[in-house]
Amino acid sequence: MQNNDKHCFIDITKAKEIIKSFPTPLHVYDADGIINNARKLNDAFAWNKGFKEYFAVKATPNPEIIKLLRSENCGLDCSSYTELSIADRLGFKGDSIMFSSNETAAREYVYARKLNAIINLDDITHIEFLKNNASIPEKICLRFNPGGEFGTDADIMGIPAEAKYGLTRSQMTEAVKQLASLGVKEFGMHAFLASNTIGDTYYPLLAKTMFSTVLELIKETGVRFSFVNLSGGIGIPYRPEQQKVDIYKVASQVKNEYDRIFVANGINDIKLFTELGRYMLAPFGGLLTTLIHFKHTYREYAGVDACAANLMRPAIYGAYHHITVLGKEKETKDHVYDVVGSLCENCDKFAVNRQLPKLNYGDILFIHDTGAHGHSMGYNYNGKLRSAEVLLYKDGSFKLIRRAETEADYFATLDIFDEFR
Known about the structure:
Blueprint: H1 12-21, E1 26-30, H2 31-44, E2 52-56, H3 63-70, E3 75-78, H4 81-89, E4 97-100, H5 106-114, E5 118-121, H6 126-133, E6 139-143, E7 150-151, E8 156-158, H7 169-181, E9 186-190, H8 202-221, E10 225-229, H9 247-261, E11 271-274, H10 278-281, E12 285-296, E13 300-304, H11 313-317, E14 323-325, E15 335-340, E16 349-356, E17 364-367, E18 388-392, E19 398-402, H12 407-410
Parallel strand pairs: 1-18, 2-3, 2-11, 3-4, 4-5, 5-6, 6-9, 9-10, 10-11, 13-15
Antiparallel strand pairs: 1-12, 7-8, 12-13, 12-17, 14-17, 15-16, 18-19
Helix pairs in contact: 2-9, 7-8, 8-9
């Protein structure tokens, strides 16, 4: 890409048009990009009958976006009571919901059973807890944690032994036996061993581990496994020099493992599921923000009307998000700025020592890749109000899909006091 930039799905003219109706800061999403990405994922795994993507609701819990994904046959991965409620209100039921949680409250299991969702148990002790509080279903999933380090000899992708999630290998065998004795007829396995991987090897390596373990469990216990859930973990190229994951290559390598481990042993009916959030949505969302201040001290600061309350990943993780100055895409990046917000926290920085074109008051900045874990991680520190969300369509039309918060929203939980009613 020219000038080492990333592609924007919105230009300065459209941004200004949207801002006239919905002032910055705001999150905008690319409807066409979301749909096409979902279609590519489904196409890549079409070799597996029953393949299904369960979109991770936590990434972008917006009803309009969920409806877009449902139109492409996606289910929902829910992790809390409220996320189950979102699924319920939007008409998802039964096998269209995967409930993956940890340290789960009884009422959450009760709700999941009411919806007949597929429950993914995170710990062997939850078997008794589920039985006593909600009942054991005939189909259930178990979250596997193999321990140790996960990856190749040259590349450690994750350290499962340090994660709080999942059952050990020996616990998997015991859990399957317990659940079978309690009436479970259909099993699934889930694992999440690495996050935001941008190579093509994570899913194939994960598949090898999971498929081999499932085959062992079938031989040990004689139960039926009907699906394997590869969960999430496929990342995106946040930096312009990084390459996008080749989902077709990934799916082909997963098929090789499927054929080698399952088909070679007479098993060809195990469905594959995924629970992607970042991969499904992040590149198709951006934060629009307006430059309102400059500060010239030991560094050059460019102050914008957004802050970490609108996008907290850079503040809490030091995460990189590319920034495009709309209308200045072809200008030379010959100035260096810290792009900052207004929170009373020194980590409230979208970029540090970032090379950008010369900035001017009123410039509109597009902060890339906020479509997942962007708006959803927002908060109200310093009394900041969360922004609007807007969906942009291929024909240039756009739609408000979440209004901006108001003071009334902020004070809603203080209505116990006369002054705030």
